[in-house]
User: Fold this.
Amino acid sequence: MKPVVEINRLTKIYNNLRGIHEVNMTVQQGDIYGFFGPNGAGKTTVMKIMTGLIKAQQGEVKLFGHPVSTHYEQAMAKVGVLIETAEAYSYMSGRRNLELAARFYPGIGKQRVDEVLEIVGLTPFQKEKVAGYSLGMKQRLGLAAAMLSKPELLILDEPTNGLDIEGMVHIREIIMHLAREERITFLISSHLIHEMELMCNRMGIIHQGRLVREGLVSEIAQGSATLEEAYLREIKEVRRLAAHA
Ligand SMILES: Nc1ncnc2c1ncn2[C@@H]1O[C@H](COP(=O)(O)OP(=O)(O)OP(=O)(O)O)[C@@H](O)[C@H]1O
Assistant:
């Protein structure tokens, strides 16, 4: 089966010489893929290139077999995106925001708005202004907007960032429900290893702009008491090798 996401030798170096170097990643259909790394490791940069928000200097991203840089519309046709905190018009209701977003997609109407509100648990609050929403509710509204077009792949950058425990659990439950019931493939970035452990089947670890490990979460955690311990061991080894290079 063709991978849903293929990233090949992706490189982008900013003027300050930070960025990402030769990143290779593969997401298979049905994966909940955790893209894990500390603050500043390069997760958002990769995701912005993947979704055409910025350009790479080198390398390629293919979504459903289509290169993003040359065949953007085909590549993004079955993709929903939530990058950084979801932006919404705060003086409008949650529902009105979704209705406006739905106008971008031909054939997506009020019925789909009802469906996505239901999936993210915002039906009771749909008529309230977004200004009165909690951060968790705003994130769920962003997730609802990303789902409007019935995507087969959802790319979520730090979807639980800043949320309290209940907010995190709620987002996680929605993601796992969608993966199971609607067969949506997920690429989710996070700097919270516990989230990866609870939610993802496969993961990639990015460290200082380089993908240092990719594989099944169960494989990566093997031989360690926790995934956190496995990660720390991995990074120690990367630093040891770098010191001897
Ligand atoms: N527009 C920019 N100009 C210069 N440097 C940048 C820019 N965007 C990101 N960087 C740098 O590139 C590196 C990777 O940043 P990026 O935002 O991709 O990391 P991240 O893993 O998403 O971090 P976080 O978890 O904090 O969001 C960081 O060192 C960051 O400071």
The beta strands are 5-13, 19-27, 32-36, 58-63, 66-67, 79-82, 153-157, 185-190, 202-207, 210-216. The two ends are 37 Å apart (CA to CA). The longest strand covers residues 5-13.
